[in-house]
Structures are given as structure tokens and as C-alpha cells.
Design goal:
With 107 residues, the chain is mostly helical. It is built from 4 helices and no strands.
Length: 107
């Protein structure tokens, strides 16, 4: 089962909109691109891990780098505080992780 990138991106955007409310309009141009990039990067990292190109430690290190990048982008948007940014990141991590996990186990 291939990843439905469009649906996953929509789910990430919906979670961010819910967290930010009216502030979403300021974050949208930056957040949408970063969510898309994060999803693509995590799919690539999971492929590398699955085929043995990188080990679990390398995967975790690189995943943390991508997470930090997403956090930096969100925190750079005026009006998004640390707690809101972290709530959005947690939601995106959950959505992307669940989607990729489902593909990996064939659900």
C-alpha cells in the first residue's frame, strides 16, 4: 500500500489549523512546505532503514534533525509560541509515523 501523501499532508494541515486557529494564515505558507518536506524525508529515511543502508541510531539522529528543522520553521513565524509549535510537531509526528508504519507493516 503506497503512502497517500496528499491525505497525510491534509491531516497535518488540519492539525496545525486546529492548534493555531486564526493564526494559521500567518503560518500556512511556511508550515505547508515544511510538512510536505518532512513527510518526504521520513519516507526516504524509512526506506533507507528498511533496506539496511542506515541503522536505527542513524535513523533516529536524522529524524531528530528533520524534527528540529520543522520546529525552527514554526518558531520563526510571528505569533507561534513554543507550546503551540510543539503541539503541532507532536501532531505531525503522530500522523506521519502512523501512516508510514501502516505502509511498512502492510495495513
Amino acid at each position: 500500500m503506497p503512502l497517500d501523501f496528499d491525505q497525510i499532508l491534509k491531516d497535518c494541515i488540519a492539525a496545525a489549523k486546529k492548534e493555531l486557529g486564526a493564526g494559521w494564515n500567518d503560518a500556512a505558507p511556511f508550515a505547508e512546505q515544511k510538512f510536505k518536506q518532512y513527510l518526504e524525508d521520513m519516507a526516504d529515511l524509512n526506506k533507507l532503514r528498511a533496506d539496511g543502508t542506515i541503522d536505527e541510531d542513524e535513523f533516529k539522529y536524522r529524524a531528530d534533525l528533520h524534527k528540529s528543522s520543522m520546529q525552527s520553521v514554526l518558531l520563526a513565524v510571528k505569533g507561534i509560541g513554543l507550546i503551540a509549535a510543539q503541539n503541532i510537531i507532536n501532531a505531525v509526528l503522530g500522523i506521519v509515523g502512523k501512516a508510514i508504519g501502516a505502509v511498512l507493516i502492510g495495513v
